[in-house]
Amino acid sequence: MTALPLVFDAPRRGLPARHLADLTPDERAEAVTELGEKPFRAKQLSNHYFSRLTVDPEDMTDIPVASRQKLIDDLMPSLLTEVRALDCDDGETRKTLWRAHDGTTLESVLMRYPGRATLCISSQAGCGMACPFCATGQGGLDRNLSTAEIVDQVRSAAAVMRDGAMPGGEGRLSNIVFMGMGEPLANYKRVVAAVRRITEPAPSGLGIGQRSVTVSTVGLAPAIRKLADERMQVRLAVSLHTPDDELRDTLVPVNNRWAIDEVLEAARYYADTSGRRVSIEYALIRDMNDQPWRADLLAKRLRQHLGHLVHVNVIPLNPTPGSKWDASPKDVEREFVRRVNDGGVACTVRDTRGQEIAAACGQLAAES
Protein backbone atom coordinates (compact mmCIF):
# COMPACT_ATOMS: atom_id res chain seq x y z
CA MET A 1 0.00 0.00 0.00
CA THR A 2 1.21 3.51 -0.82
CA ALA A 3 2.43 5.38 2.26
CA LEU A 4 -0.01 8.01 3.48
CA PRO A 5 0.96 11.46 4.75
CA LEU A 6 1.53 11.73 8.48
CA VAL A 7 0.79 15.45 8.65
CA PHE A 8 -1.97 17.67 7.32
CA ASP A 9 0.41 20.21 5.76
CA ALA A 10 3.57 19.24 3.88
CA PRO A 11 6.57 21.62 3.75
CA ARG A 12 6.58 24.57 1.37
CA ARG A 13 8.49 22.59 -1.28
CA GLY A 14 8.04 24.07 -4.74
CA LEU A 15 5.52 26.71 -3.71
CA PRO A 16 5.66 30.09 -5.47
CA ALA A 17 6.82 33.33 -3.86
CA ARG A 18 4.25 35.10 -1.70
CA HIS A 19 1.29 36.58 -3.52
CA LEU A 20 -1.40 39.07 -2.62
CA ALA A 21 -3.93 36.22 -2.41
CA ASP A 22 -1.82 34.45 0.23
CA LEU A 23 -2.23 37.42 2.59
CA THR A 24 -4.99 38.80 4.78
CA PRO A 25 -5.95 42.47 4.18
CA ASP A 26 -3.83 43.55 7.17
CA GLU A 27 -0.86 41.54 5.90
CA ARG A 28 -1.21 43.15 2.46
CA ALA A 29 -1.08 46.64 3.97
CA GLU A 30 2.01 45.64 5.97
CA ALA A 31 3.65 44.19 2.85
CA VAL A 32 3.20 47.33 0.74
CA THR A 33 4.46 49.48 3.62
CA GLU A 34 7.61 47.36 3.75
CA LEU A 35 8.09 48.21 0.08
CA GLY A 36 8.02 51.92 0.91
CA GLU A 37 4.47 52.46 -0.39
CA LYS A 38 1.41 53.89 1.35
CA PRO A 39 -0.88 51.27 2.95
CA PHE A 40 -3.81 52.22 0.66
CA ARG A 41 -1.89 50.72 -2.27
CA ALA A 42 -2.81 47.31 -0.83
CA LYS A 43 -6.50 48.05 -1.30
CA GLN A 44 -5.86 49.26 -4.85
CA LEU A 45 -4.05 46.01 -5.71
CA SER A 46 -6.79 43.99 -4.03
CA ASN A 47 -9.44 45.80 -6.03
CA HIS A 48 -7.69 44.94 -9.29
CA TYR A 49 -7.19 41.28 -8.40
CA PHE A 50 -10.38 40.40 -6.52
CA SER A 51 -12.91 42.87 -7.99
CA ARG A 52 -11.68 43.56 -11.53
CA LEU A 53 -10.16 40.05 -11.79
CA THR A 54 -7.07 41.34 -13.57
CA VAL A 55 -3.35 40.73 -13.14
CA ASP A 56 -2.31 42.94 -16.07
CA PRO A 57 -0.20 45.92 -14.93
CA GLU A 58 -1.48 47.96 -17.88
CA ASP A 59 -4.96 47.90 -16.34
CA MET A 60 -3.77 49.36 -13.03
CA THR A 61 -3.77 52.99 -14.11
CA ASP A 62 -4.66 54.29 -10.63
CA ILE A 63 -1.19 53.23 -9.41
CA PRO A 64 1.82 55.29 -10.54
CA VAL A 65 4.01 53.48 -13.05
CA ALA A 66 7.06 53.74 -10.79
CA SER A 67 5.22 52.00 -7.95
CA ARG A 68 3.25 49.60 -10.11
CA GLN A 69 6.08 47.35 -11.28
CA LYS A 70 7.61 47.13 -7.81
CA LEU A 71 4.25 46.08 -6.32
CA ILE A 72 3.56 43.62 -9.12
CA ASP A 73 6.99 42.03 -8.85
CA ASP A 74 6.71 41.57 -5.10
CA LEU A 75 3.00 40.87 -4.55
CA MET A 76 1.68 39.53 -7.85
CA PRO A 77 4.20 36.98 -9.16
CA SER A 78 2.95 34.86 -12.04
CA LEU A 79 1.10 31.84 -10.66
CA LEU A 80 -0.65 29.74 -13.32
CA THR A 81 -0.27 29.72 -17.09
CA GLU A 82 -2.99 28.14 -19.20
CA VAL A 83 -1.55 25.27 -21.24
CA ARG A 84 -4.75 23.99 -22.82
CA ALA A 85 -8.52 24.24 -22.45
CA LEU A 86 -10.86 21.48 -23.65
CA ASP A 87 -14.64 21.88 -24.01
CA CYS A 88 -17.50 19.40 -24.18
CA ASP A 89 -21.25 19.28 -23.38
CA ASP A 90 -21.88 21.87 -26.11
CA GLY A 91 -19.22 24.09 -24.59
CA GLU A 92 -20.79 24.14 -21.12
CA THR A 93 -17.99 22.08 -19.54
CA ARG A 94 -14.43 23.36 -19.80
CA LYS A 95 -11.34 21.63 -18.41
CA THR A 96 -8.23 23.78 -18.12
CA LEU A 97 -4.70 22.45 -17.76
CA TRP A 98 -2.49 24.88 -15.85
CA ARG A 99 1.29 25.04 -15.50
CA ALA A 100 2.73 26.57 -12.33
CA HIS A 101 5.98 28.52 -12.00
CA ASP A 102 8.00 25.34 -11.37
CA GLY A 103 6.48 23.28 -14.20
CA THR A 104 3.96 21.55 -11.95
CA THR A 105 0.68 20.85 -13.76
CA LEU A 106 -2.86 20.79 -12.41
CA GLU A 107 -6.42 21.00 -13.69
CA SER A 108 -9.70 22.74 -12.94
CA VAL A 109 -13.15 22.19 -14.47
CA LEU A 110 -15.78 24.89 -15.06
CA MET A 111 -19.38 23.70 -15.56
CA ARG A 112 -22.24 25.94 -16.60
CA TYR A 113 -25.83 25.03 -15.72
CA PRO A 114 -29.07 26.98 -16.08
CA GLY A 115 -28.86 29.74 -13.48
CA ARG A 116 -25.48 28.82 -12.01
CA ALA A 117 -21.86 28.02 -12.78
CA THR A 118 -19.71 25.65 -10.72
CA LEU A 119 -15.93 25.44 -10.65
CA CYS A 120 -14.21 22.24 -9.53
CA ILE A 121 -10.77 23.24 -8.24
CA SER A 122 -7.56 21.47 -7.25
CA SER A 123 -5.89 21.88 -3.88
CA GLN A 124 -2.84 19.74 -4.64
CA ALA A 125 -0.93 18.76 -7.75
CA GLY A 126 -1.69 15.05 -7.80
CA CYS A 127 -2.90 13.20 -4.71
CA GLY A 128 -1.31 11.01 -2.07
CA MET A 129 -4.43 9.12 -0.99
CA ALA A 130 -3.85 6.26 -3.49
CA CYS A 131 -7.49 5.33 -4.14
CA PRO A 132 -7.12 2.66 -6.85
CA PHE A 133 -10.15 3.71 -8.96
CA CYS A 134 -9.05 7.35 -9.26
CA ALA A 135 -6.60 8.53 -11.95
CA THR A 136 -5.36 11.38 -9.75
CA GLY A 137 -4.66 9.07 -6.81
CA GLN A 138 -2.84 6.58 -9.00
CA GLY A 139 -0.51 9.31 -10.23
CA GLY A 140 0.69 10.11 -6.71
CA LEU A 141 1.30 13.47 -5.02
CA ASP A 142 3.57 16.06 -6.61
CA ARG A 143 3.10 18.90 -4.12
CA ASN A 144 0.62 21.06 -2.25
CA LEU A 145 -0.70 24.16 -3.98
CA SER A 146 -0.27 27.53 -2.33
CA THR A 147 -3.28 29.50 -1.15
CA ALA A 148 -2.83 31.87 -4.08
CA GLU A 149 -2.57 29.03 -6.63
CA ILE A 150 -5.91 27.70 -5.38
CA VAL A 151 -7.52 31.15 -5.41
CA ASP A 152 -6.17 31.98 -8.87
CA GLN A 153 -8.11 29.08 -10.39
CA VAL A 154 -11.26 30.77 -9.08
CA ARG A 155 -10.28 34.27 -10.21
CA SER A 156 -9.61 33.00 -13.73
CA ALA A 157 -12.94 31.17 -13.95
CA ALA A 158 -14.80 34.18 -12.56
CA ALA A 159 -13.27 36.27 -15.38
CA VAL A 160 -14.32 33.66 -17.98
CA MET A 161 -17.92 33.86 -16.76
CA ARG A 162 -17.94 37.65 -16.51
CA ASP A 163 -16.58 38.03 -20.02
CA GLY A 164 -19.06 35.59 -21.58
CA ALA A 165 -16.28 33.30 -22.79
CA MET A 166 -18.53 30.22 -22.48
CA PRO A 167 -21.79 29.59 -24.38
CA GLY A 168 -24.72 31.38 -22.79
CA GLY A 169 -23.19 34.84 -22.66
CA GLU A 170 -22.03 36.80 -19.64
CA GLY A 171 -22.66 35.24 -16.24
CA ARG A 172 -21.39 34.83 -12.71
CA LEU A 173 -19.34 32.12 -11.06
CA SER A 174 -21.61 30.98 -8.24
CA ASN A 175 -20.33 27.70 -6.74
CA ILE A 176 -16.94 26.26 -5.82
CA VAL A 177 -16.22 22.59 -5.11
CA PHE A 178 -12.86 21.36 -3.82
CA MET A 179 -13.21 18.12 -5.77
CA GLY A 180 -10.40 18.46 -8.28
CA MET A 181 -6.90 17.09 -7.81
CA GLY A 182 -5.75 16.35 -4.28
CA GLU A 183 -7.08 15.80 -0.77
CA PRO A 184 -8.04 19.27 0.49
CA LEU A 185 -7.66 18.45 4.18
CA ALA A 186 -4.10 17.21 3.58
CA ASN A 187 -3.28 20.82 2.63
CA TYR A 188 -5.33 22.15 5.49
CA LYS A 189 -3.93 25.61 6.30
CA ARG A 190 -3.75 26.74 2.69
CA VAL A 191 -7.18 25.39 1.82
CA VAL A 192 -8.82 27.17 4.77
CA ALA A 193 -7.01 30.39 3.84
CA ALA A 194 -8.16 29.94 0.23
CA VAL A 195 -11.77 29.48 1.35
CA ARG A 196 -11.51 32.75 3.26
CA ARG A 197 -10.07 34.56 0.20
CA ILE A 198 -12.78 33.08 -2.01
CA THR A 199 -15.61 34.05 0.34
CA GLU A 200 -14.53 37.38 1.85
CA PRO A 201 -16.39 40.35 0.33
CA ALA A 202 -14.57 42.24 -2.42
CA PRO A 203 -12.03 43.75 -2.49
CA SER A 204 -10.72 41.63 0.40
CA GLY A 205 -11.76 38.49 -1.48
CA LEU A 206 -13.85 37.20 -4.35
CA GLY A 207 -17.19 37.50 -2.55
CA ILE A 208 -18.62 34.01 -3.18
CA GLY A 209 -20.83 32.92 -0.26
CA GLN A 210 -19.51 30.24 2.10
CA ARG A 211 -22.69 28.22 1.66
CA SER A 212 -21.83 27.96 -2.04
CA VAL A 213 -18.46 26.29 -1.31
CA THR A 214 -18.01 22.53 -0.81
CA VAL A 215 -14.85 20.99 0.70
CA SER A 216 -14.41 17.27 0.08
CA THR A 217 -12.32 14.72 1.92
CA VAL A 218 -11.67 10.97 1.84
CA GLY A 219 -12.00 10.97 5.61
CA LEU A 220 -9.18 12.64 7.55
CA ALA A 221 -11.21 12.56 10.75
CA PRO A 222 -9.11 14.90 12.95
CA ALA A 223 -9.01 17.49 10.15
CA ILE A 224 -12.80 17.27 9.72
CA ARG A 225 -13.18 18.20 13.39
CA LYS A 226 -10.63 20.97 13.00
CA LEU A 227 -12.56 22.34 10.01
CA ALA A 228 -15.76 22.31 12.07
CA ASP A 229 -14.05 24.45 14.68
CA GLU A 230 -13.32 27.09 12.02
CA ARG A 231 -17.07 27.89 12.31
CA MET A 232 -17.51 28.36 8.58
CA GLN A 233 -20.64 27.59 6.58
CA VAL A 234 -19.03 25.55 3.80
CA ARG A 235 -20.54 22.18 2.95
CA LEU A 236 -18.56 19.06 3.87
CA ALA A 237 -18.48 16.15 1.40
CA VAL A 238 -17.08 12.81 2.55
CA SER A 239 -15.97 10.31 -0.09
CA LEU A 240 -17.10 7.08 1.60
CA HIS A 241 -17.60 4.67 -1.36
CA THR A 242 -18.59 1.69 0.81
CA PRO A 243 -20.18 1.19 4.25
CA ASP A 244 -17.89 -1.64 5.40
CA ASP A 245 -14.31 -1.23 6.61
CA GLU A 246 -13.08 -4.43 4.96
CA LEU A 247 -13.68 -3.11 1.44
CA ARG A 248 -12.95 0.52 2.28
CA ASP A 249 -9.44 -0.41 3.42
CA THR A 250 -8.82 -1.26 -0.26
CA LEU A 251 -10.88 1.43 -2.01
CA VAL A 252 -9.80 4.28 0.30
CA PRO A 253 -6.48 3.30 1.93
CA VAL A 254 -6.64 6.11 4.50
CA ASN A 255 -9.40 4.00 6.10
CA ASN A 256 -6.60 1.95 7.64
CA ARG A 257 -5.94 4.97 9.88
CA TRP A 258 -9.43 6.39 10.37
CA ALA A 259 -12.14 3.75 10.04
CA ILE A 260 -15.71 4.45 8.99
CA ASP A 261 -17.18 4.93 12.49
CA GLU A 262 -14.53 7.53 13.34
CA VAL A 263 -15.04 9.34 10.04
CA LEU A 264 -18.82 9.44 10.45
CA GLU A 265 -18.53 10.60 14.06
CA ALA A 266 -16.32 13.48 12.85
CA ALA A 267 -18.84 14.22 10.10
CA ARG A 268 -21.63 14.36 12.70
CA TYR A 269 -19.57 16.81 14.73
CA TYR A 270 -19.21 18.93 11.60
CA ALA A 271 -22.95 18.79 10.91
CA ASP A 272 -23.84 19.67 14.51
CA THR A 273 -21.33 22.52 14.63
CA SER A 274 -22.17 24.05 11.24
CA GLY A 275 -25.85 23.20 11.07
CA ARG A 276 -25.26 22.00 7.52
CA ARG A 277 -26.12 18.64 6.03
CA VAL A 278 -23.12 16.47 5.09
CA SER A 279 -22.81 15.01 1.58
CA ILE A 280 -21.66 11.41 1.25
CA GLU A 281 -19.99 10.66 -2.08
CA TYR A 282 -20.35 7.08 -3.31
CA ALA A 283 -18.71 6.03 -6.59
CA LEU A 284 -20.74 3.00 -7.70
CA ILE A 285 -18.48 0.26 -9.06
CA ARG A 286 -19.78 -2.83 -10.85
CA ASP A 287 -19.66 -5.99 -8.67
CA MET A 288 -17.49 -4.17 -6.13
CA ASN A 289 -19.62 -1.92 -3.90
CA ASP A 290 -23.04 -1.99 -5.59
CA GLN A 291 -24.65 -4.97 -3.83
CA PRO A 292 -28.13 -4.52 -2.29
CA TRP A 293 -26.85 -5.44 1.18
CA ARG A 294 -24.29 -2.64 0.97
CA ALA A 295 -27.06 -0.16 0.10
CA ASP A 296 -28.98 -1.34 3.18
CA LEU A 297 -25.89 -1.14 5.40
CA LEU A 298 -25.02 2.31 4.07
CA ALA A 299 -28.45 3.65 4.96
CA LYS A 300 -28.32 2.02 8.41
CA ARG A 301 -24.88 3.39 9.32
CA LEU A 302 -25.60 6.90 8.01
CA ARG A 303 -28.93 7.01 9.83
CA GLN A 304 -27.24 5.92 13.06
CA HIS A 305 -24.43 8.46 12.86
CA LEU A 306 -25.96 11.41 11.01
CA GLY A 307 -29.74 11.07 11.24
CA HIS A 308 -31.38 13.49 8.80
CA LEU A 309 -28.20 15.59 8.42
CA VAL A 310 -26.93 13.68 5.40
CA HIS A 311 -27.45 13.24 1.67
CA VAL A 312 -25.86 10.55 -0.51
CA ASN A 313 -24.56 11.40 -3.98
CA VAL A 314 -24.22 8.23 -6.02
CA ILE A 315 -21.59 8.77 -8.73
CA PRO A 316 -21.48 6.33 -11.66
CA LEU A 317 -17.81 5.30 -11.85
CA ASN A 318 -16.01 7.25 -14.53
CA PRO A 319 -13.56 5.28 -16.72
CA THR A 320 -9.83 5.85 -16.22
CA PRO A 321 -6.92 4.50 -18.31
CA GLY A 322 -5.93 0.95 -17.37
CA SER A 323 -8.65 0.57 -14.75
CA LYS A 324 -10.06 -2.93 -14.22
CA TRP A 325 -13.32 -1.51 -12.86
CA ASP A 326 -16.43 -0.16 -14.54
CA ALA A 327 -19.67 1.63 -13.66
CA SER A 328 -22.59 -0.43 -12.38
CA PRO A 329 -25.43 -1.17 -14.81
CA LYS A 330 -28.30 1.32 -14.67
CA ASP A 331 -30.75 -1.18 -13.19
CA VAL A 332 -28.30 -1.96 -10.38
CA GLU A 333 -27.77 1.77 -9.83
CA ARG A 334 -31.51 2.41 -9.60
CA GLU A 335 -31.98 -0.42 -7.11
CA PHE A 336 -29.08 0.82 -4.98
CA VAL A 337 -30.53 4.34 -4.84
CA ARG A 338 -34.01 3.00 -4.08
CA ARG A 339 -32.79 0.92 -1.15
CA VAL A 340 -30.83 3.80 0.40
CA ASN A 341 -33.88 6.05 0.12
CA ASP A 342 -36.11 3.32 1.57
CA GLY A 343 -33.63 3.02 4.40
CA GLY A 344 -34.45 6.58 5.45
CA VAL A 345 -31.51 8.43 3.87
CA ALA A 346 -31.88 10.87 0.97
CA CYS A 347 -29.99 9.56 -2.07
CA THR A 348 -29.71 10.77 -5.66
CA VAL A 349 -27.46 10.14 -8.67
CA ARG A 350 -25.06 12.96 -9.45
CA ASP A 351 -25.13 14.46 -12.92
CA THR A 352 -21.92 13.43 -14.70
CA ARG A 353 -20.14 16.00 -16.84
CA GLY A 354 -16.99 15.91 -18.94
CA GLN A 355 -16.31 12.19 -19.41
CA GLU A 356 -15.19 12.58 -23.02
CA ILE A 357 -12.47 15.07 -22.05
CA ALA A 358 -11.44 13.20 -18.86
CA ALA A 359 -12.91 15.99 -16.74
CA ALA A 360 -15.31 13.95 -14.62
CA CYS A 361 -14.85 12.76 -11.03
CA GLY A 362 -11.69 10.68 -10.61
CA GLN A 363 -10.39 11.39 -14.11
CA LEU A 364 -8.12 14.41 -13.57
CA ALA A 365 -4.51 13.50 -14.28
CA ALA A 366 -3.04 16.79 -15.64
CA GLU A 367 -1.60 15.11 -18.71
CA SER A 368 0.03 17.36 -21.29
Automatic annotation (TrEMBL):
Residues forming the catalytic site: 107, 361
Broad class of where this protein is predominantly found: cytoplasm
Any Pfam family: Radical_SAM
Protein residues bound to [4Fe-4S] cluster: 127, 131, 134
Localisation: Cytoplasm
Record's keyword annotation contains S-adenosyl-L-methionine: yes
Cofactor(s) the protein requires to work: [4Fe-4S] cluster
Classification via Gene3D superfamilies: 1.10.150.530, Aldolase class I
Entries under CDD domains matching the protein: Radical_SAM (cd01335)
Keyword Hydrolase set for record: no
Note: Reaction proceeds by a ping-pong mechanism involving intermediate methylation of a conserved cysteine residue.
Record protein name field: Probable dual-specificity RNA methyltransferase RlmN
